[in-house]
Design goal:
By secondary structure, the protein is of the alpha/beta class. It has a single domain, classed as Rossmann fold (3-Layer(aba) Sandwich), CATH 3.40.50. The chain is built from eleven helices and twelve strands. It has helices at residues 11-32, 54-67, 84-90, 132-136, 157-165, 178-192, 227-237, 246-253, 271-274, 284-287, 294-308, and strands at 2-7, 36-39, 73-77, 102-106, 112-118, 124-131, 140-144, 147-148, 154-155, 196-206, 214-224, 265-268. The strands form three sheets. The protein has an eight-stranded mixed beta sheet with strand order 4-3-2-7-10-11-1-12, with helices on both faces. Strand 3, helix 3 (84-90) and strand 4 (102-106) form a beta-alpha-beta unit. Helix 1 (11-32) crosses helix 2 (54-67) and helix 5 crosses helix 6 (178-192). The protein is globular and about 50 Å long. The two termini are 24 Å apart. 51% of the residues are buried.
Length: 310
Amino acid sequence: MVVSLVRSEDHYEGVYEALRRLGDALVKKMEEAKDIMVKPNFVSAYTSLSATPVDSVRAILDFIYTHVGERRVLIAEGPTIGSFREALDNYGYLELKRAYDVAFVDLNADAGRAFKVYDSSLRKRVSIYVAEHALKSDFRISICRPKTHDTVIVTLAIKNLVMGAIKSPYKGRMHQGYSAINLNIALMAVHLMPELAVIDGYVGMEGNGPVDGSAVDWGIAIAGLNALEVDGLASWMMGFDPYEIGYLYLLHVAGYGELKVDKVEVLGESPKVWRRRFRPHRGYEAQKGWISSKDKLEEIIRSELGKAHT
């Protein structure tokens, strides 16, 4: 799969150009979709730096209207801090209804489907509920900033969709220690993998993310139809080793994409030119503790793969 990497002069321009570079391959996939769901990141309804800017989503909508045709699009999210309505209001999303045929879906209030995930002893006995709209959509777009994280090193397109789709108050049940949360995100991603991953890196977050970090002026945007390769490239460009990010590594083991940057076809800018070092979360070293359970996690992910595709 091709990943596009472009310079960005603002949130809108970067995202639109990253999508445009993907060309006919993206347009064809969107034309085939019965419904399109855009999943921004509203981890907090109150901290704008933690959230996806509305102009990033506006760029996606304009791309759809220009290259695919007018479509009804769902904008769906389930915030961790605050309410969906507050986030829509605080971040200017309600204005989108004036220009586009969009519907807003609060994933925390959506009908839910039950799943079992793993606890801290790596036994599958924790119940969670996942929003039906996120599971049933046939073209999921995950759009978020690149941010450091307090548990899994980075939060990018895959994690944005997975954790947002888990209904409150069940999100916290995914957090069963560093090994289990990486395993749980990887396993749930099989059901919730974005069909299009977009990283708006015009301004990212470093340090004590995903809410309390500091702004990073980066000036790039990344997009692609393979979410694992988009997230792997983005994490590498943030200065991290993608193989140290547990959920990305496990999805790679399961065959969902490539993590080595030199094996990913990048269209546009050179990743090496735009690579920089994001200051990690203060718990970064502890977060790598999942590696001590790597053999066990690989065994589980391989045994679960067949079940996940049925």
